[in-house]
Write a structure and sequence with these properties.
By secondary structure, this protein is an alpha+beta fold. It is built from five helices and four strands; from the N terminus they run H-E-E-H-H-E-E-H-H. Strands 1-2-4-3 form a four-stranded antiparallel sheet, with helices on both faces. The protein is globular.
Length: 96
């Protein structure tokens, strides 16, 4: 899925998030995926760094390659707020 999104992304950073639930809230699991276009990789963007910055806001962590990375989220209830801050993280990186 991430590669398909990346192939359609002319320039930018895209985020995908999933939450699956089991029989109780304790079984709820979330995953966050970040993909980065080649032109932004050349400007110093790394999907692993980006996904980790957002994941930490939801008690998660992750990593990967410069073009695609994923993170496990330990606090799914915080994922929406973490994703809402993703554009600010991207803007901050663009400003550097």
């Amino acid at each position: 899925m991430g590669q398909a999104v990346r192939e359609q992304l002319p320039s930018g950073v895209a985020w995908l998030a999933t939450t699956t639930s089991g029989s109780s809230d304790d079984n709820e699991k979330s995953t966050l995926l970040c993909v980065v276009s080649d032109d932004l990789i050349k400007r110093g963007f790394k999907a692993g760094e980006m996904v980790n910055a957002v994941a930490q806001l939801a008690e998660g962590r992750g990593g990967g390659k410069p073009n695609m990375a994923q993170a496990g989220i330990k606090a799914p209830e915080k994922l929406a707020d973490a994703l809402a801050k993703a554009p600010d993280i991207v803007r901050k990186k663009l400003a550097n």
